[in-house]
Amino acid sequence: MTLNSALASDEIGLTKVAPFTRRGFMTATAAAAAGYSLAAGPVRADVITTDTNGLDTGPAAIKVKDGEMPGYFARPAGAKNPPIILVAMEVFGLHEYIKDVTRRLAKLGAFAVAPDYYYRAGVDLTKITEIPKLMPIVNAKPDSELLSDLDATAEWAKSQGGDGNRLGIIGFCRGGRSVWEYAAHSGQLKAGVAFYGSLIDPPNPLWPKSPMQLAAEMKAPVLGLYGAEDQGIPPAQVEQMKAALAAAKKPAEFHIFPGAPHGFHADYRPSYRKEQAEQAWAEMQAWFKKYNVLS
């Protein structure tokens, strides 16, 4: 078995990125104080910061089968019956970038919720400093538990006044894989958007089927947003997924962005590509509007 075949696609993409200079990045201390993950590496000084004006934001306490799962939510203040968008995080935990994305979605009119579904590990993933120490924890998350947690998050949002008939999901990196998995699972989901989500998994008994194997089981349309320079998810693999979905007559669209590596939307990391990230965000909005998640 080669090294790459033993690693998840997102791990390869995260560890094989272009070189960078230290200029324009926060110190590790400043990044930690600002709420960013330490394992994610250098944090850009000019990260996007979304204010809370006009929003209700805060921690969520989501009832799950074995207790209470923490999370973070943002919704338009005073809005009645807003659409629900689940935010599936990267492997780095519920850190400031994911919270900011949640606020950005709320500014678009959504009740956005990011569940901290790795909480059972009993360790704060944002405080882990090295990816090799982080991956065994996130790779131990069973898909069955993940899907149950996402269902519980949707139910929690509905109990708080969100519109369960306009349910969407967005995810990044490992969370992008979660989008594909959830689209094959949930009969309530209206649409999903996967940012560079893994399509083919390494052997793991906790992950019965990879997104590629689930192509014929998709219950909701998904928009896949990928980078042409992603070292873990090559364009040929994206085209393979596109063909599998087309053969199964499942609605989906893909955009492979030239010059974009894995994590091109992560505005806090060196992998960020502003032009591609902004275009992808616009395509995400159009997709959710097309399927009546966003107004």
From TrEMBL:
Instruction: Give the superkingdom in one word.
Output: Bacteria
Query: Where in this chain does the record put each Dienelactone hydrolase domain?
Result: 69-291
Show the InterPro entries listed in the entry.
AB_hydrolase_fold, Dienelactn_hydro, Dienelactone_hydrolase-like, TAT_signal
**Listed name of the protein:** Dienelactone hydrolase domain-containing protein
